[in-house]
Amino acid sequence: ATVNIYLILLCGLSNVLASTINSTTNFTNSNQISNNEMYSKAQAILNKSGVFQNFSLSEIENWMHNISTWTAPKALDDSFQYYLAGHTDENLPLWVIEIGKVKIRQIVTEGEAGKEFLDKSMQKLIKNVLQSILRNSSEEVSDFVAIMDFDGYRMSENIHFPTISYMQKLTQRYIHILDACLQKAVVINASYAVEVLINSNRPILGKLLEKVDVYGTNKRKWLPVLHKQFPADSLPPWYGGAKNFKPIKAFG
Questions:
Q1: Which residues form the CRAL-TRIO domain (predicted)?
Q2: Of 111, 127, 208, 233, which one's alpha carbon is 20 to 30 angstroms from that of 142?
Q3: Per DSSP, which regions of 43-152 are E strands?
Q4: Cβ(200)–Cβ(161) below 8 Å
Q5: Rounded distance, CA 191 to CA 151, Å?
Q6: Who wins on pLDDT, 130 or 26?
Q7: How far is CA 60 from CA 48, 53, 116, 128, in A?
Q8: What are the pLDDT digits (tens) for 170-206?
Q9: Around Cβ 22, how many Cβ atoms within 10 Å?
């Protein structure tokens, strides 16, 4: 069920927002669009989800402000780690999401509070990804790409019905946002447990899986793929990238 979050996430994904939109940040450049244009473009994407379907422009702005000021509990924030690693040769944002570190079952068993924290953390991820896409006026930059690392994911996440049920619900809430802005995702360290997870959720993920390439735990197989598809200076050294690598922005 964890893959759903981040395949949704993956567009659906964290401590910047309206305040960062209104000031100079690592996401912006000399071609920065106006705030109104930023919110308008975000609205067009977010409205594809039932969660934001009827949000006006001002409501989108308020949501972005509110989600940026919300802080996740430390335990969740520490495990929910992702970062804007760099950009592709086509200038698309490259996000790395360490999915395997998030213990969804543990969060869900905490009750409604845990579910709410997870949902809001996902909304922050979505906001951060959108902001990286809409950082300038280029009509060519409308998508993002992602590396999703499942190292640490366990089969125990798959056999807990409340966890599966909640993650499917979360996926359905944000799947259309992800489908609207994800160009490609590379899943690495996909163990047998991850394969079971993906196969059991194919009906929900649907055509989105056509944008996802899945590789197992053999580093010798997926490392050349990362080198071929992404610039070396946008990859951390543990993925064979530059030793002096530094992400543009990190969360968690």
A1: 72-247
A2: 233
A3: 82-87, 93-97, 144-149
A4: no
A5: 8
A6: 130
A7: 13, 10, 19, 14
A8: 888 999 998 999 999 999 999 999 999 898 889 989 8
A9: 11
